[in-house]
Amino acid sequence: MTNLVRSLPHPADFPAPPSDPDRARWAEADAAARPTRLRRLRDRMSAAGIDAYFGIRSEHMRYLTGFALDDGEEKVAGNSGRFVVAAEEVVVLADSRYRLQATAQASGARIENMTYDLAAFWPNLVKSVGARRVAVESALVSHQLWGQLQAAAPDVELVEAVGWIEADRAVKEPAEVERIRAACAIADRALAAIVRRVKPGQTERELALALEWEIRTGGADALAFGIACLAGANAALPHGSPSSSEVHIGQVLLFDFGATVDSYRSDMTRTLFVGEPNPRDVAIYEIVAAAQAASIARLDAALCGEQAVPSGREADAAARKVIEDAGQGEHFGHGTGHGIGLATHELPSLSRAAGDDPLPSPTVFSVEPGIYLDGITGVRIEDLVLFDQGRTAVETLTGFPRHILSVGV
C-alpha cells in the first residue's frame, strides 16, 4: 500500500491571494495585449476575405474588448456583450443595464445601445462597418437567428467561423498564466482550510458550502463552477452534485472545484480517504496516480527532446494505457484533460476525440484521469499543468498534495 499521510496541509503552505497591484498590472497587460489579439483575428479575416467578425461568446468578448460579464450573466444579458470586429473598428453592443460598464471596460470600442431585437438592428450595424461578408460564431447562433440575420440584410453574406478565437486563446500570455496560478493557490488554500474539519456524519452539502466559503473569502472573485463534493458510491458520478448523503469512515471523499481570479479559472480534483482507507480504493488511487504521471511524463519527454510534442490524443493515450493495462479501461470514460483560462473548458483537449496537431505552447490544461465503479466508489486526481516549450517547462500549477491523505480522524 502507498504510504498513508495523516499530516494534512495547512493554508499557509500556499501563496497569498493576489494584491491590488497584481490586479492593476494584469489590467495593464490585457490592455497592451488586445491590439495583438485583434491583429491576429483581422489577419485571419483578411486571409478569408471577411469584412467583419460577429462574436457571441462572452469569453471572446472579454479577451478582445475587455468587457466582462459575470459567469452566467450572458443568460439574461440579451444581446449585450455581442461584438463586431471590423478592419478599423470594434463595436460592442450593450443595453441600458450594461452601457456604463461597457464604456469603462471596452476602451477604444464603439458602444452601441442595443435592444432585444438584433435582427432589426443588424442592417445598420453591418452597414456602419462597411461589411458585405461577416464571419459568425456559428456554433453559438441558433438556426432561427441565422435566418433572421440573413433576411434582415440579404445583401450581406454570413460565413461560418469555427474555432478562430478559441485557437488563439489556447496559447496563454504570461499575465494569463499568473491569474490561473493565483486561482490555483486560492483553491489550494481553501481545501487545506477545511480538511481538518471533515468529520463522519457531515453531509456532502455541508462540506461543499464550507469549501465555497473559504474560496470566496480567500481572494476569489467567484467559483469557477459548482463544487462537487461526493462521498463513497457518489464519487462514481464524474460530474455529480453534493447531496444530503453523509460522510462515513472507510469511504472516499472526492472534491472537484475551482476559483476565479480576474475572469481566469482554476480546476482541481482531490480524492481523500475518510479514516482508514479501503484497500480496494487505495489500489484504484494508485492506478489513477500512475496514469496521471504517465501523461505528464509524456510532456516531459517532449521537452527533453526524447519524443515529439504530443497531440492531445497522444497525451490522453499515455494516461489511458495505464488504466487499460490495469484492467480498468471500461471505467474511464471521459477525456484526460481540457484547456482552461477564461472558460473552465476550452482548447486544447486531451481526449480520444482530440486532433493530431501537437499541443500549443505555452498553454495550460488539466490532467485528470479517473476510475469509476458504478454504485461502489470513484477516484479522480486533477491538476492544472503549464506546458511551455519556450521555457522548457512542464509545471504543475496545482499545489495541494497528490499523495494519499486520510481525513476525519
End-to-end gap: 19 Å
Overall 3D shape: globular
The percentage of residues in β strands lies in 15-25%
Largest sheet: 6 strands, mixed
At CATH's second level, what is the architecture of the largest domain? Alpha-Beta Complex
Derived from helix and strand composition plus strand pairing, the structural class reads alpha+beta
Strand order of the largest sheet: 4-3-2-1-5-6
Which CATH class of the largest domain is shown? Alpha Beta
Radius of gyration, in Å, reads 23 Å
User: What is the number of domains?
Assistant: 2
Mean pLDDT: 95
What share of residues is helical?
25-40%
The DSSP helix count reads 10
**CATH fold description of the largest domain:** Creatine Amidinohydrolase
The CATH superfamily of the largest domain appears as Creatinase/methionine aminopeptidase superfamily
The total count of strands amounts to 20
Give the SSE map:
Blueprint: H1 20-47, E1 52-55, H2 58-65, E2 83-86, E3 90-94, H3 99-105, E4 110-113, H4 118-128, E5 133-137, H5 143-152, E6 157-161, H6 164-170, H7 174-194, H8 204-217, E7 222-223, E8 228-231, E9 252-257, E10 259-261, E11 264-265, E12 268-274, H9 279-303, H10 312-325, E13 337-339, E14 346-350, E15 363-367, E16 370-373, E17 377-380, E18 383-388, E19 393-396, E20 406-407
